[in-house]
Amino acid sequence: MKVAISPLAALPFVLLVVTACQSTPPPVADGSQASAPPAPSSAPGPAAPRSPVFSETARNIANNCFTCHGPDGKSPAAIPGLSRLSAEQIAARLRSFKNGTASSTIMGRHAKAYSNAEIDAVAAYIAGVNKQAKP
After folding, report:
1. pLDDT digits (tens, 9 = 90+) for 102-135
2. Could you tell me which CATH class the domain 55-133 is placed in?
3. What ranges do the domains of the chain cover?
């Protein structure tokens, strides 16, 4: 069923929308202008909470690590291995790359992309892989 609305009947709604969208507030009852809302602060607010890091995400990040650091962190070449490091050592090293206190060619760029929760999760994942691989 179609309902036809005459343009004259729609006029109050259109005026309401136009009035609500004005850039200056309407005058208050005493004739003065209402004060404008405060301008948004340019200072950054608190960081939005990040969602938890799932084991699948940690595994995917770790697989990126294993590309250079060798399967399960056992590096066959000059790139440092991860297989003998604890989760705390891995996380501390990643944070030092992230905040620039450790020099690197590529690790700083990788670490800056990860949140602290992701760093903790991937460090725990790699350390867990290391524990499983040891006899």
Report:
1. 999 999 999 999 999 999 999 999 998 877 755 5
2. mainly alpha
3. 55-133
